[in-house]
Amino acid sequence: MSEPLQLLPWQAPMWRLAAQAIEQDRLGHALLLSGLRGTGKRVFARVLAAALWCKTPLAERLPCGRCDDCRQVLSEAHPGYTALRVEEDKRDISIEAVRILCERMGMTSHDGRSKVAIVDPADSLNRNGVNALLKTIEEPPPRSHLLLVSERPLALPATLRSRCQQMRFAIPARAEALNWLAQSGAAAPAEAALALDAAHGAPVLALQLLQDKSLELQQSWRAALLDLAAGRTDPLKAATTVGEAQAPAFLRWLYGWLLDLLRAGLVPGGAADIEALARTLPRHALDRYVSEVQENLRRLEFNAKAQMVLEAVLIRWRALVALGQRS
Asked: 236-252, pLDDT tens digit by residue?
């Protein structure tokens, strides 16, 4: 991956706007950084936080990455910095954690400089947490900045979204993404292209797939779905092959794979087997199945039995394929 406080190449246009806002002292009190997983939202948020404190900034207000302030941001030990995340074994960000954050944001910093909080993912805030945060956003303390990171911004209440400055992170051009992956040295060009396809064009996620070897796992899931479609295996065996431990990762991947089916003909790299299968599936039924996959992913978040969820999802997949074969 890039250096710890190094902006990603495709973020340069967005950074110029942020740097100008910092220079003119008009950076928003609440910013919503949204976009697909793997587009670099968290990298941007950390660079932005460091830029507000860096003692020796580079061109365009980019943080140097070497001064005490930058190093403290990297270690999340800066006195003006707060990172709010879902605690281990919790489903959402607790109201208690939000209240502590709001209290810290309301305190005057000892040196009069900015205070920054990163809430990640913001869509893990529960209703009480959102309401508590809204009070801080509506009456922001001086020189305070809330950076809300989300892959599902529409899951946030409209009352919260409407009070945030929107920063949307798009998938970069394929050539730019492949060039960045090549510079990382993580894989040969052909393998990097496969990883980028598996990540639906998101370079940071593609690099993660290469580094943790999960690309091979995703290819096995894809083969299992195609085997189910061809009748070479059955849903219960396929669910056992995926395994309970991988159920959340599988469903997240399946959702993206289904989106490729819905936009068949626009799949990066031209996956002929996906396109051929997509032509047999009724669009309305596939739309419903995508919603079912999302709902089952939420069920897992609320401690549904993973094996039963996998079996249900794969039984429905086989039924969907059968429907397409009859139509």
From this structure: 999 998 999 999 989 98
